[in-house]
Structures
1.
Amino acid sequence: MFQIGLMRGGQLLAEQSPDDLIAAYNASTLEEVFLLLSRRQGDGTTPLVQADTPSQVDSAMDVFENQKHKGVGESKETLVLDDFAELPPTTVSRSHFPEPAEYKDLELTVATTGTPPHPPPIPTKKQNNTRSISYRRYSAVPQRVSSSIIIFPILEISAFFLAIGGQPHGLKFAVVNDELGNYSNCGEYLTQNSANLTWLDEDTCRLGGKLSCQFLEAINDTMGVKVYYDDLDTAIYDLRKGRVTAVIYTARNFSQALQTRLELGSSATDDEIVESQVIISVDTTGKNAISSLYKAPEFHRVSPSTILRSPPVTDLQLSQDLKWRLLRLYLEFAENITIACQRPIKLAHIPIDFKDPVYGEKNPSYTIFMAPGVIVSLVYFLSVSLTSTILLVEKMDGIWGRTLVAGVTSSEVLMSHVISQMVQTFIQMVFILLMSLYVFGFEIRYNFTLAVVLIALQAMAGMTFGFLMSSLCDEIRTANYFSLGIFYPYLLTSGIMWPVEAMPTVLRYISYTMPGTLAIESLRNLIMKDWTLLHPQVFGGFLSSIAYIVVQMALCLLVMKYKKL
């Protein structure tokens, strides 16, 4: 239990815990205790420092006599007593105190003039405590708006949309084209043979020219820069050294073998099939992209096969992106041939027909998958950062103790913090949504209102979690470690970066205990699938968010009561 000191006119009147002072002087509030002690100070005949035992009283009397002879402790303030009734007697032992003569004169005055009027009762609970403290906190908000409320949300959401979801560019491809013969690259071949070059005879459907160049020219500079090599071994060596991203190889008889494959289909020999392939080998490290050897999809009567060899991939997203883009290039190349030969275009496709998706786009960006989770996690942890140390700072600065001494309860102080921080949290949320929707073009297609409400609930859940940490921890450093320590489990297990369905069963159930997992799933379903609030996969996010808010606030109050804050 902490102690307080009551001082007037430069003299310490009493020093004890608030409850002990109120009990010792038989008062209902600390204001009454201070009034009684101020009266005694005006008398100038009684010691004012709290004393409960004879030895303490003797010591207090000695101090009082020394101060009295030196003129110390006499207040120059005038204490007006006409409007106040006499307070109840103190329970402090007065056996060693001299009875002041002024008390007897006061009794005679009261007896002759009657009982003085009673002052209005001093309230023990102030109904406007929470409102007053909240107003004081609001007045400090404009001083912190530029740094803690606006800048960080804008920087973080901008970093996400600018860094995630774009197509890789500036890659470096090593090209080994044995079909070129004496030509150093496809550009030289096309320049020297442009006058009499015929890719396809539409009457006979005979392929002409070097078809490998037609495919390679489809790889434009926005996708990657082509560097031609004379031999495959040198290209593979540079790939292993990290000088290039991938190696693209076409055999000497690529065009002829592809023609044979078109005409004979499954009757073509193994050598003809191998020579008609475009083989692509890529780096297996995250620095230089992806790993795999590909061969082009076969059409006509041969079953398609797209992957020749697939070593472990350390950069999955880049691997899938490059694989998909190269396969699309070859598909367009094959479609052009079938169209020119007046054959069904589906002969160039694999025997799987992907229809348009029921929800979303056919080729969605990875940004669309991550954006709901990133928005929820940002508002959550920005709220945590605002509140995780706020109670600790007030306790260390003494603001908390002075507020409680003024008669405000811990729950009122906490509620004032909730109200003031809620406003700052919602300001951050608004800036995140404005940047996402109007600057970077993220689209909330359905249920805009419900989506905003769910994001606001997650912001409040983060705010209450910060209050809980601030009440549990005794040091700012501990609270910071705790908030940083929970960040990565939240990020990795809440389905932000990867679907929770891909997790092991046990970890998947654990992930559902995280505050953001169900909320992120609900937000995706709201804005992409047009599901209503009554859908179980939407309602669960709202229910879990509200549950976290209520439970964390209750735990915070219990901790404050247990620690007697």
2.
Amino acid sequence: MQMQIYGISAEKITLIEPTARPPLLVRVVFRFMEPEPIVIIESFILALVTVSATELADKTMLVVMCFGAEQQNNGRILLAVVSALMVSTSVAIAVGSGLRAIIPINWLTYVSGVLFIVLGIHSIFFRDDDDEDEETKCSSDAELGAMFSTVLISELGDKSQLAILGLAVNSAFPLAVFSGAFTAFTIVTVLSIGIGSKLGSFGEKSAIHKIAGAIFVAVGFLVLFGIL
């Protein structure tokens, strides 16, 4: 008795000669279609949820809130912070393991903690309270570079970067991990700037500077003691 497969006899199937290999373009297209879309979506969602959870109440969020409270140019804050987080995420995915081998995490932690303390002391004691000078400082390239450097250094070796590194190692789709992490960073940054701006609308500039400076100093010590 002949075995029937979808109405076609197995004998007829065995008589079919193998066809030639498909063109290169067809093979490339099917190669990229092999992974299930659900796996890519899972990598994206996992990175989104993980990074969002690690960034809530993290030192980076507190720093961005301070930036939003001290300054009114939210566009420049968003540009500086998101750019720094994009670089940090790229480093974690592309060369995170190599970076950990070259630069000890402890060194990055100490540098980050000292930087926060220095910025806090500067905000408390050396910040100019004149409104015109304030606007000039907030819109200068130096201020933009300072925000970028502060966020970038604070993220190097941070738990969110290590989480991204772990996700990238365990995922076959690093671009999905990057997209999820970057989306989470953007959401948290926008929320932090908004909260900081609302806080900055109350009270005088000098009081806001001192409060922000105190938060910077507190975050710096928490980083040095390994709490954050």
3.
Amino acid sequence: MAQIALDDDLIERKFTDNFTYLQEKVSRITDIVDILIEKRVINLHDRPKFLNVNKSQKEKVDDVLQEVMTKKKFNEFIFALMKTGQSTVIEILTLDNTEFCAFIGSPKQEAVSTSTKTVNELETELKQQAHKIVKLEAEKKKLQQDINHLKDVQQGVRRTIEEKTSRIELLQKENIEKNKLVKDVQQGVRRMIEEKTSLIELLEKENIEKNKLVKDVQQLQHDLNSSNKEIKMKTEYIEKLEKLYTDAVEQTKFVNKQIKENTKERQKDREEREMDRKHREQRDQELNTKMELMLNSIAQLKIDKDENKTTGTKKTTLDPLKNKASNLRKKKI
């Protein structure tokens, strides 16, 4: 497999768009760092910094990706992925029209009949449909990753809402209890006034906190609703992509059927031409045989005539037609 070189702006956009995917899917980071050191992307003395044992796998990958994007050494990184056998990640970063044509190969050029040209056109259309299927699959995979990420975020938002709701309920219970204490203080003796005042101040602080929590919950609820809308839109888009994928597969089947039918018609034409050739050869052979028999008969008659003139006697000659019939019977036997 040869190294694939892409336009820096294009591949940089692909790195940016798929950064989260790369963080999760890139593996064998130690081998990748060693290859990047060989390619002079990373300095040898920086190797411990990128492979620090105290860092998680995701942090190591993130550091390497940031270094590659900073130095714009995308082709060297793809080479490292190729050497470590991470073809799926390479496809995400390099799949476009040029790489697809290189993958499926250029169409063969042959000087053939009109029917063969039609087959070539069908083959080209088949390859275009296959390309469309691959692009739709890649886009579907990207959207599914986004949906999974949004679902994770949604779960975190729900947990936060539940925690803050529990906190609000707890504060409400505390407020009820403290309001009761305030009434008790109001009905108590004068010496409890200071204690009552302190309690009121505490309640005011807690009310401020409660109002803040209510606002946070409202904001989180709004974010949750936005996430649900986005998930719905992307789900509908995936359904459209799946329909396009199904249509493309059906069209591919139809093209394959047309190719088979054209192949059968060409085979039938060849067989008919072969039978015509054999018939012509047989007719030519029969005509040659008849001509040869007629010439022999004429020659024999001339010889007999010359001999009759020389000897003055009438010699019995063989009937040419009878000789021809006799020869034909012998030939059939």
